[in-house]
Fold these 2 entries.
Entry 1:
Amino acid sequence: MHEMSICEGILLTLEAQAKEQNYKTVKKVWLDIGAFSGVEPRALTFGWEVVTRNSLAENSELIINHIPGQAWCLSCSSSVTIQNRYDNCPKCDSGMLQMTGGEELKIKELEVD
Ligand SMILES: [Zn+2]
């Protein structure tokens, strides 16, 4: 499962940070997940429980912050929200869109002890 390896990656990041910043447990993790990141939030939450067992983030809560797909339309010069990666501009129907958001997959904030 794709989400499992993402969780493992996040955990590795946390373990490295814990050494640098001297914390021992992670209580909450806020994640930015873009609409086009290809991640299934439910699978991620499940993976998180499994991966963090017996780790510094055991029993921590994973809070997912959904980032919508955002693009800049070169035709009508506006910032628009899109549902699918290859959508046309919802305002002028142009296909000249530049993606500006929606591919995020990163740790936004942590609550640690
Ligand atoms: Zn447009």
Entry 2:
Amino acid sequence: MRTLLLAALLFLAPNCSRRSGAQEIPSQASPPPSAHAPVASVAGVTKAASETDGAKLHERYCALCHGKEAKGYAADNAPSLVSQRFLESATDAFIATAIRNGRPNTAMAAYGSSRGGPLDERQITALVRFYRSKGPAPLALPAPGPGDAAKGGKLYTQYCITCHAPPGQRGTAPQLHNPEFLASATPAFIRHAIVHGRPPTPMPPFGERLKAEEIDSIVAYVRALATLPGAAPADAKVPDNLALVINPKGGKPSFKLRDERYVSAEQVKKALDAKQRMVIVDARSPADWLLFHIPGSVPIPYYDTEKLEKLPNDGTWVVAYCACPHHASGEVVDALRKRNYRHTAVLDEGILFWKDKGYPLAGSAATPAPSAAPAPSVKHP
Ligand code: HEC
Ligand code: HEC
């Protein structure tokens, strides 16, 4: 009874899809349905069967960046979710919060349905169980001493900045100034990572290199970092009547692609300014679209590519972007090309570059709060 009810609910949900796993290749034989065909159909039923299977959920939504085995670094320097040092310091609540709320302004989107993402709480719990099954339970961690944040700042510049970047900027390692990170990472969690590192990842242990007071000071500094604009308001939803085509009456852009695949942000910005006709697909979790997106873009995430069949296949340019900057958008472009869309491209530098350039954005966090740190100058690899 409960399963049936759930299946019915999923059937109605806007993010519902016909795919039950990432490994399924969408059928190419059938002609694309008409522009406004419902995308739900029998979907809910297949999804209900696998919805609490953490391994399947991981494969569909997370493997793209965190890797098939969840060891990280498949794309975007996504961290390992299964290293011993991570699992012994991260509580289930910490992991669940990261999945639900994401890390705004990074490639890690919010996936919780409370933030407009695809996953309900049962699915988030299933994912947490899946990662937990690959390593130890959380330990009771010793809390650091008070420390001196000013001293910690100097040590941070000396030892950490090469990977974690200055506050407000993006480096190759997770953002320690991220508001969602700071909202859930305790001083003890931060200290544990610094003392022991995260072997076998690039995060080195500092327990032998730095004195205990120095580490306490760095923790005090990290905890005190000013925060950037936060998340989309809870329960925000993508409107269901979004127009698919931008400037339907406009002329055709003449994009020049790099490697027959990538279009520069500058060309897309120019085409928008010139009111030219195109479709822009946001390939991230819809929760991140709610936060900020290119005006006129439609959210069709990398894990829901069947929804691309709604797009006109009449030669209109379709540009896909993500934060990565190429992975999620690349999946969308591959799926379009499989369906014989002729003019498709990946936005080369991605949305974070677009944002850093000050190009137009829409969404709840489109305009940075006055307290925001200066615009990043480090380019994402
Ligand atoms: C050589 C690059 C490098 C240096 C130097 C480095 N880190 Fe890291 N750090 C990383 C990476 C990569 C991760 C993510 C590891 C993983 O996959 O779990 C990380 C993770 C962390 C985490 C955990 C963050 C999270 O979201 O779980 C903390 C805290 C941290 N580092 C603090 C520091 C501090 C403080 C310093 C300086 C004393 C430092 N790191 C120096 C690369 C580095
Ligand atoms: C587009 C790439 C991408 C996808 C897809 C993605 N992540 Fe992440 N994830 C990241 C990055 C990058 C970070 C580090 C963010 C930062 O800089 O702070 C991260 C961080 C995390 C963290 C925090 C780890 C820590 O040490 O603090 C968790 C937990 C996590 N992701 C789980 C997931 C789960 C579960 C999914 C699937 C539902 C997922 N991610 C999908 C890129 C991704």
